[in-house]
Amino acid sequence: MDRSPSFLAALASAAVPGLDPVSVEAPPSLPGQSFDIAFVEDDEHRRWVVRAPRTEMAGAEMDRSVALLALLARRLPFAVPAPKGFVAVEGCGRAAVYPYLPGHPLELASLPAGPGLAAELGRALGAVHNLDPALFEEAGLPTYDADAYRTRRLAELDRAAETGRVPTALLTRWEGALEDVALWRFAATPTHGDLTGEEVLAVFGDERDSASGRVKAMTGWEDAKVADPADDFAALVAEASPDAVETVLEAYAHVRVERPDPNLLVRARLGSELALLARLMDALGRKDVPAVEVLSTQLRRLDDAVHAAEAEDDYRRTSLAPVAVRTRPTPPPALVVDDDDEEELPDVSEPRRGLG
């Protein structure tokens, strides 16, 4: 059952001493969401965000992310949520209240290529992935190396296959990519884990000029972990134009401590497809029949789209084949000649005579 905005405002007042709500608004509730959220303004014109978990599992995830955020606050070039108070919520752990972070959520589909916001996003992602993994471990967040993460993904695919709702061709496509170890050679990094445009808040020096945009904050850290850096590119490759993706990746590579692996975007493409599968499994777990039917239809459409792309010139954008890494041939070692031995070397400009 959804909690009313007035109830969430009361939670905010109880969590933060001196917070006296005068207005409250809440975004529309979505099926399967893990938190109830409301925006509260107090009598001092301060704005606050209330997040109340709907389940005990969501509450545990939020507690872990709160521990991480305390460690990240001074280590990133943008803001992260900083809770100022908590209040117990029966059966779900506790709700968190933190100051409202200004900014506009990114619309990845209209993200412009070139200098400006796309490059800013790339640098912001690089800053996250450059973090020390020990910080995530200290906060009690999951840590996977490349092979363990690939194995985990395979297990998730096996469970989805048992539902009978995934097109056979898609199962074959995903299984082939997950079993191709050439795709899964990456250095595990700290990741946001569920990065969409909604979690990236941008501000602009000039609202009419995208080049003036910068990343102000990142929210929604409940799925943070040490794992595949490609996860944070999944929504980007699914929604943004190829030119915008290229700009983001170029800026990202420029700031990264370690060079991105050549298959990062291929795994991101795979991740964007598997995200649809994860939503299907979540809907099945909730026994949400209408959502299951919608997501099953979307999977069939994805299957059709992949087949159509494979038959056309757009195959490059949908392929899950590993990127061929070109290597330059190693030149033969240079001949080192000692000056003292120079006279003993034969003259090879003409055939030698008198040897046979």
TrEMBL record:
Aminoglycoside phosphotransferase domain mapped to chain residues: 32-254
Biased segments, Acidic residues type: 337-347
SUPFAM superfamilies cross-referenced by the UniProt entry: Protein kinase-like (PK-like)
Keyword Protein biosynthesis: no
Chain segments carrying region Disordered: 317-356
Signal peptide (from-to): none
GO molecular function: transferase activity
Keyword vocabulary terms for this entry: Transferase
InterPro entries per UniProt: Aminoglycoside_PTrfase, Kinase-like_dom_sf
Protein name: Phosphotransferase
